[in-house]
Structures
1.
Amino acid sequence: MRSKKAIFDLIPIGIYMMSDFTPLFDYVEKLSGKVLSADEKQIFMRHFKSKKLKKRQYFLQEGDVCKYTGFVVKGSARTFTVDEKGHEHILKLSVENWWLNDFESFYQLTPSRFNIQALEDMEILQITNALVDEFIKPIPAFAAMQNVISQNYTIAAQKRMQSAISQSGEQRFQELINEYPHFLQRFPQNMIASYLGLSPETLSRIRKNALK
Amino acid sequence: MRSKKAIFDLIPIGIYMMSDFTPLFDYVEKLSGKVLSADEKQIFMRHFKSKKLKKRQYFLQEGDVCKYTGFVVKGSARTFTVDEKGHEHILKLSVENWWLNDFESFYQLTPSRFNIQALEDMEILQITNALVDEFIKPIPAFAAMQNVISQNYTIAAQKRMQSAISQSGEQRFQELINEYPHFLQRFPQNMIASYLGLSPETLSRIRKNALK
DNA sequence: TGTATTTAATGACTAAAGTCAAGATCCAGC
DNA sequence: GCTGGATCTTGACTTTAGTCATTAAATACA
């Protein structure tokens, strides 16, 4: 049985940790539509580890297995590939309340084709695949959240695919402005260009035309 | 209590139906890694309805809600959009053992942005969202299958996005040949071109060059 | 089998986007 | 504030892919 002293000792840690985890708890509850119990929150806090990444630091490098999935508490990152000409192509821009990983590599434990790199100083909560399976997936709110995410992701991927196939660079740029207007403030233009599948020069010219 | 006669009456129907449903059962069992009980199979057979589509017939038209999800037993279809210039862009080619729907419209019951049209005479097994939720999702093998599908789909969408953003028309075509070699035999070249985001003329020229 | 329709190939031209190079501007860190 | 790297703009040119028009080939099907 726990003494009053022991409980007291835990409080400062608890308070400190809780504030870190609040965004994650809010996110899981919001997407799943379920409430997390105090016990369930403890499970999260025991198995997710806080990690800081400096700007330009890599979360994952091509060829490595994506051992962790991370929840972005603060900062941003890009997921990109490098083609045979040495050009980088950004597939995903991740900001607060997004997950950071390469699905394929993380679930199948195969070497990744992607690089994931911090664009700003970051704070993430990360966990391994094995620990997710053993401790986190059994939490109903988490499993429900996963289903919602994969549904949303599938829909978003389809939309993006549609614009990649059927729209001009300019149209894709306009769409990005509408969907993620803050991206323009937050990320350098060459990153936006790479995300749209355009050269930085082309995006610069598109913007110039759009303003006239 | 059921008489011997009544059971006997059911057998021919059962046998007839079973043969239709075999591909679906095999598919669910394979993807989920679980075995379906006789009772569970009966649930499938009670709620999925067989439907035939003639070549060129529409399964879904832009602006309509995608009321059904269909499992392709035989034939093929394309999912496409029409842009403001009247050009069609194929997002998905569906053949045997694939599902036929617009996720977004089907789950959210919103008007679809896509058309789905048979490219060959088709035979599908279809069901509404409400019936899936009530009768089919509770079957563990089906729920497990859904998770596997959404994982696979997410990975495939990411791969396709990567090639759309970072590869030339020719490279995308080569990749298609490697991944789905039978598509070239089965579908007209202009459909393949549309799927790759190319004009039919460009694909024709790419093929000519590749042969030299 | 013959004819209409669809699909594919090709040439000439146009449009969109990429490449390379140079200069301007912005900004982080000392 | 100064300085070096990063980012952005612009011009000249090249490459890639789209468009339009025409002809050829394949296919459907009556």
2.
Amino acid sequence: MPELPEVEVVRLGLVDYVVGRTIVDAVVHDIRSVRRHLAGPHDFLAQVIGSTVVGARRRGKYLWLPLDSGDAIVVHLGMSGQMLVQAPSVAAPKHLRISFALGDGVELRFVDQRIFGGMFVSPAGAELPAEIAHIARDPLDPAFDRDDFASRIKRRKTGIKRALLDQTLISGVGNIYADESLWRSKLHFARPTEKLRRVEIDRVVVAATDVMTEALAQGGTSFDALYVNVNGQSGCFDRSLDAYGQEGLPCVRCGTLIRRDPFMNRSSYSCPVCQPRPRHPR
DNA sequence: GCTTGCGCCTGAATGC
DNA sequence: TGCATTCAGGCGCAAG
């Protein structure tokens, strides 16, 4: 699934191949992909057709394309979303949900198998769409404020992993990078946030920043001219994961077998020795 | 106000 | 073999 580095690679692709172009036509193939556009698919099309894309921006895993109208097309890739720049003659991919004709034989295609993602138009949202203003900055954002993050974390009464997955505290961290960041910083996912020391909070933020930076460095190299691809499952990134999905494999730090615990109807992977369970977990 | 849990969705993997 | 169930995940929203 697209994690923050993949989303950033998509943004870079959009900057290269979509910004500056005018949407001459568009088709919504599946209305569920515009379900967050409350005025409906016809209004969505009316808002975008004829507009020129003047930028490609990102906050966390949200992307938005500011238009010359001052509005913005907000995009979330969800679990399986892709943005493909292809010639119209290329056969329509399975799960094609929305397509934009950009003229000169270029089409922007939104492909999304599971429809967790989608698009909507944010009125006057060019600078920062109001609908995503509650999303915190991500650790790769130069304006990310570590002091503010630390003080907000300590005011929470929950486990550190839940906090890492909370978009209003820090954005862009999904289940995979949460587990990787906690493994690197040697913190158990159920450590109570209010009892964390500042040095521990800083450690996990640095770890998250490093994991994402490394993934981004790898992803940036596999970019193809006419193909803005961001499907993590296709192996766009050769992620070297130390914890996530490593159940039963030895921890590369101490050799203890990585374990999997149920967590929020999903899984948490951790090293039982490097990341000792707290006495009073949350 | 803050925290927690559900439902959305598809297809691969697993179970009987 | 074939059908049914489980799992994966981000995010908005409702409930506690």
